[in-house]
């Protein structure tokens, strides 16, 4: 029962994170014209470097493997529908990406720098400074990334592109972005106004829809859980 509750809470948090960052997934698909109009100083990247692409709300990460190749984790619904590599190796569109996030299927794949960044600015090894952790040797970082290539489960909270990169770079899979989101959720939950608001909405649903199990139970259960969590 406890594991089921944890899975339910995890699922809710992932959906909240997904919805709060929906603009990230809709800010332009890889392979669009914007990607072709940007030139990158590929010669300045070293094998094993962490490449970061800042977005509106999230940052996408990859490991540079050399020769204009970047290993990165990408959600992709096609991986659950076909084994045709001719299809799955094409640049992942926004629709494929969003459905992949929802269905929690992804792959650690290799793309060109242009397809990885699709027109955005690239930061190099910024995680080294922000996390203040000692990085592994670049060659070991690249080898770790190459060993992980292939299909993998995906989770916005527990297994995303940042987890992949930090494991390769530092030997430990962490995601400060996901941690920050969870902290913000905790702040909201601990705010007693959230309990009051949920109680009012619950009472309103009972008044409008009548006294039934599908209205009464949430009206009692949700405020109680928020109160206990706070």
Automatic annotation (TrEMBL):
Domain LRAT: 50-177
Species assigned in the record: Odocoileus virginianus
UniProt GO MF annotations: acyltransferase activity
Name of protein: Lecithin retinol acyltransferase isoform X6
Keyword Transmembrane helix in annotation: yes
Superkingdom of this protein's organism: Eukaryota
Gene: LRAT
Transmembrane segments: 196-229
PANTHER family for the chain: LECITHIN RETINOL ACYLTRANSFERASE
Keyword set, alphabetical order: Acyltransferase, Membrane, Transferase, Transmembrane, Transmembrane helix
Record keyword Transferase present: yes
